[in-house]
Design a protein that fits this description.
Blueprint lengths: L5 H15 L17 E5 L15 H10 L4 E3 L5 E3 L2 E6 L5 E6 L13 H11 L4 H7 L2 E8 L2 E6 L6 H5 L12 H4 L16 E3 L9 E6 L23 E5 L4 H9 L5 E2 L7 H5 L4 E5 L5 E7 L9 H9 L3 H8 L6 E2 L18 H4 L3 H10 L7 E6 L3 H16 L4 E6 L1 H7 L13 E7 L26 H12 L3 H18 L2 E7 L2 E5 L2 E2 L13 E2 L1
Parallel strand pairs: 1-10, 1-11, 15-16, 15-17
Antiparallel strand pairs: 2-3, 4-5, 5-7, 6-7, 8-9, 9-10, 11-19, 12-19, 13-17, 13-18, 14-18, 20-21
Helix pairs in contact: 1-7, 9-12, 10-13, 15-16
């Protein structure tokens, strides 16, 4: 049920042959009738929410990278490099940071980018993002000294200034016009003017189907080579079109037939077909991979009870999720650390809660916690196979330990809107949703996924002052040893309060036709530097 059967795979292959499997249209998709070059992409999800500060959804983040730029950006070694910033200085006491913008930066409407835009954008971002919240906790003032100069004054030295304003993934501190950044951070923007390498064509946007971006002719790339999110964002096509396919087999056929050039997140079950086609390359583009999450709503019964959350986690055996949803074991591994395994902060403190996946112990713990049969609403995103499978596996496990489960099917874009609701279940609320974070997003305690602030934190809204104190201490730590010790304490609190269940580490390939060149290795999919031949 959770995988393509061999018969279905062969049917998909036969359909692809009939549509042009042999590469008949291998280059035809890249050229429009008027001679413009077009990169045609199957994104991993439907783009419905266009504000990458309002939501952490990766499809909205990817949209943000298309049309916005950042002050700093992470290179392939996760080191912050200047992007919109030309030069910067730090006072001897580490309390005053002065940033000068690159000359010639323009908004898509032709107006110049100013330091006031950067100030307003960072202030809005800092109200939603975990690292931003920590940074603004030590910012005394952030001002535009003139059109090109931004000055940040701190109350105490802070070791993650550049890492914060240059973070690579959700929420990315994208710079927007000041008039747009004035929008309440808990409301979505309705003006999509950026200064990035592509222009969003709102009139051509069809939610659930198509998104169109065109090259911004006035964009001035940096001179350095592209390196993850940093370096020169050189646009080598006239247009990028995202075409959304809710069905993986249909998406496969489009790629095989040459109707599209790039498939961002094909199911691992499709790899035997993709790898058998000499016109297509399938590969892992992110060495850290992804971390699966089951997220509880800590505000509503029954998961407002920490002991019930922990009982549910005890039932969640990572191998069952990864084998059932990912399949081939070469694309996954168990990881009981909340920080990605193989990274400096990975540890095993408190992880015995999930390491066994014992249904009998979970059932006993649930009874001891006083579960009273309150229904558990699990939101199931049917258009993302892996998350759909995660949802069904959780539903089965919770039913086995005695919980009353209601699985509600929807698409991912609907889920990302609904998960922002704090309403009771009877008014559209929820109890559990599943997602994943790229490893780079949860590499340290600064991630919003680990917030213990119910007012400013991530969907699910757990409250834990001890956790927040640990995250604040981490931001001020100066040595790796000190950071590792704090990370162990943070992890201990995360498992103690059971706000989420980490479901293991897995890797999702990308697939593209061999006429596509210039793919950037990164945890985030970028479309500059790419060409179609």
């Amino acid at each position: 049920m959770l995988k393509l059967t061999k018969r279905r795979m062969m049917t998909a292959l036969a359909m692809a042959v009939s549509l042009g499997f042999g590469g008949m249209a291998a280059t035809g998709s890249s050229a429009a009738s008027d001679g413009e070059t077009v990169l045609r992409v199957i994104p991993h999800a439907d783009l419905k929410n266009l504000d990458p500060i309002w939501t952490t959804a990766y499809i909205s983040r990817n949209h943000g990278y298309m049309i916005y730029d950042t002050l700093f950006a992470m290179d392939e070694n996760f080191k912050p490099q200047p992007q919109m910033v030309d030069t910067w200085t730090t006072s001897e006491d580490g309390l005053t940071w002065t940033f000068n913008l690159r000359p010639g930066l323009k908004w898509h409407d032709g107006l110049p980018v100013t330091a006031a835009d950067a100030v307003a954008s960072l202030q809005r971002w800092g109200k939603r993002d975990g690292m931003g919240q920590q940074l603004f906790g030590v910012i005394e003032s952030l001002t535009a000294e003139d059109d090109d100069t931004m000055v940040m004054k701190l109350s105490e030295p802070y070791g993650l200034v550049l890492e914060s304003i240059g973070k690579i993934s959700s929420n990315v501190p994208f710079i927007m016009p000041a008039r747009v950044a004035a929008t309440d951070p808990f409301e979505q923007i309705d003006d999509y003017t950026g200064s990035g390498p592509f222009v969003f064509q709102k009139d051509e946007w069809i939610p659930g189907s198509k998104v169109v971006y065109t090259k911004f002719e006035d964009y001035i790339p940096r001179s350095e080579p592209a390196s993850a999110a940093a370096g020169g964002k050189v646009v080598k096509v006239d247009k990028v079109i995202w075409t959304y396919f809710p069905d993986q087999t249909t998406a496969l056929n489009a790629l095989m037939a040459g109707e599209v050039d790039f498939f961002e997140a094909p199911s691992n079950d499709l790899l035997p077909i993709l790898e058998g086609n000499p016109d297509i390359t399938a590969e892992i583009n992110d060495p850290l991979g992804n971390i699966g999450f089951a997220r509880f709503n800590s505000l509503l019964p029954p998961f407002d009870n920490v002991d019930i959350r922990r009982a549910a986690i005890m039932a969640m055996k990572q191998e069952d999720y990864l084998a059932g949803a990912v399949g081939n074991q070469k694309f996954w591994k168990t990881c009981y650390s909340v920080f990605p395994c193989g990274t400096p902060l990975a540890n095993d403190v408190g992880s015995d809660l999930i390491a066994t996946g014992d249904l009998d112990k979970a059932k006993a713990a649930l009874e001891a916690a006083g579960y009273d049969g309150t229904p558990v609403v699990i939101m199931q995103p049917t258009d993302i196979p892996l998350l759909s499978a995660f949802s069904l596996i959780t539903a089965e496990k919770l039913r086995k330990i005695g919980m009353n489960v209601d699985v509600q099917a929807m698409d991912w874009s609907t889920l990302t809107s609904r998960r922002a609701k704090r309403d009771p279940v009877s008014e559209g609320g929820w109890n559990i949703f599943h997602t994943w974070w790229i490893g780079a997003d949860v590499i340290d305690p600064m991630s919003i996924a680990f917030s213990g602030n119910p007012d400013k934190g991530w969907f699910g809204w757990p409250s834990d002052a001890e956790l927040e104190a640990g995250r604040t201490a981490y931001a001020k730590a100066s040595t790796l040893e000190e950071k590792q010790e704090i990370a162990r304490k943070v992890q201990g609190r995360l498992w103690a309060i059971g706000a989420s269940a980490e479901l293991g580490q897995f890797f999702v390939p990308v697939a593209y036709r061999n006429n596509v060149k210039g793919l950037i290795k990164s945890p985030v999919q970028f479309f500059w530097n790419m060409s179609v031949e």
